[in-house]
Design goal:
The protein is an alpha/beta fold. Helices cover 28% and strands 20% of the residues. It folds into 2 domains: 4-83 and 95-180, DHBP synthase, CATH 3.90.870; 241-328, 3-Layer(aba) Sandwich (Rossmann fold). The model has no long low-confidence stretch (mean pLDDT 95).
Length: 330
Amino acid sequence: MKTEIEPARTPNERIEAISRALACLRAGEVVALPTETVYGLAADALSPEAVVKIFETKERPRFDPLIVHLPEHAWLPRVSIIGADATGLVEKLIENFWPGPLTILLPKTNLIPDIVTAGLTTVAVRMSAHPVFSAVVREFDRPLAAPSANRFGRISPTSATHVFEELSGRIPLIVDGGAADHGVESTIVSVQKNRLTILREGPVTREQLAEFAEVNWGTENKARPEAPGGLPSHYAPRTPLTVVDDISAVTVPHGQRYGALLWSSAPFPRTFVESRRLSTTSDLREAAANLFRELRELDRAGLECIVAEATPESGLGAAIMDRLRRAAHR
């Protein structure tokens, strides 16, 4: 299969790119689309035959559920069941964070095929704020299942080029909408009355969520995740990665090629053959946007090990550390 990249940077390019994406989706194919978090691999969420292609393309295990992206708010009661005790909180979350990088886990209706939710009784739903993705899903007028557009467990793609590196020859179309704004996947929460449980850290932070409800941390099921992206090993480069608090204290074995992924303003370590810095101004948003791109560059450098410097765990730093820990898990 030949994979084509369709630019969608200008208004005229977007019209053509959206038209081509819709043609593929209506034919039951999968296409890579930009979102504000990372690039997604989209297919008709109501078609089990189309969703199967997502799992096959990504080599994703069938027990790992997918996020469902909605065309508009009116679809929410069609795909999910919101209990009376949770309605108020869900409405507040939608009002403040949709469209945007917040995914809400809710009991599902029978409209959503079991393959999408890995047989679970819940469905993860969100609405993307990216103008290309939102235009495609609105015109398609059906929910789209769309995990990250990379092979399972690998570094998530934040550009069309990253998607091509991962999936060339496996999908017909990649829509190039430029670099992803946030650079890490959406925050996932479950809702219980006046309490939220964070199942995956992301651009919507614990501090932001705490303005609306008590916030707890979820527990991981290593055998079967409750929500997408919940496995302990994920977002990983091929090169072994370790996370440290003080990179200057790391001793590089003689003759070994080590790479450094820096957060602090400390000088690049001389004993490392490659170094990348997440932010030159200690900006966590910039660091999150750069994280997967810098990891990919280090992964291509022929290293024995990547050493990542820990970021603060407040705000977006919690999402960055979540991705680094999963990338380091072996």
